[in-house]
Amino acid sequence: MKNEDLRLQLIRWIAEDDATAQRLAANGSLFDGYHPEMEAIHRENATRLANAVAEYGWPGRALVGEDGAEAAWRIAQHAISEPALMRAWLRMIEDAAEQGDVRRMHVAMLVDRIRVYEGRPQLYGTNYDWSEDGSCMTPMIGIENPECLDERRREMGLPPMEWRRPPPPGASRPRDLAVRAHEMAQWAKRVGWRP
């Protein structure tokens, strides 16, 4: 049974996220740390999603259709200031994937996002950041058991690993990668990802 109202809300919420990111990217401020306006949208959407999940359970395909389920997962993926919510949602998304209600790749990407913010190597190699020389994007933190990576990716519906990617359109390399890494680690401690 589909919940069309919830589906439309989820789509609207992620559209607000996208519009904010596009506006901040256009003026060049999106890529210089975690922009406070972007964080505010992510926190607001996390609260909205938490309320929806409390009422309906995880919004997968059966409840909100493919596009609604995609929007719910993207909101969860962007809720990086809410470690407890992301961890709780991961368990729900894993259960939903077992039932075929969400895409398995969404599980993989959320697992990696959580591991990166916890400071642990990724399992699937889905999170990228600037290379040390600033020429491209490479996997963040590293990969656990890289010899089995493509097999793990295949099981989750992901293509073979790309070890180097071009940067996002409009992105400019941070002025000082070491300073940026330190700031990211401090932020991760402040919001509760790391001790």
Automatic annotation (TrEMBL):
The lineage of its organism: Bacteria, Pseudomonadati, Myxococcota, Myxococcia, Myxococcales. This is Uncharacterized protein. Pfam families: DUF6624 (PF20329). It comes from Pendulispora brunnea. InterPro entries: DUF6624.
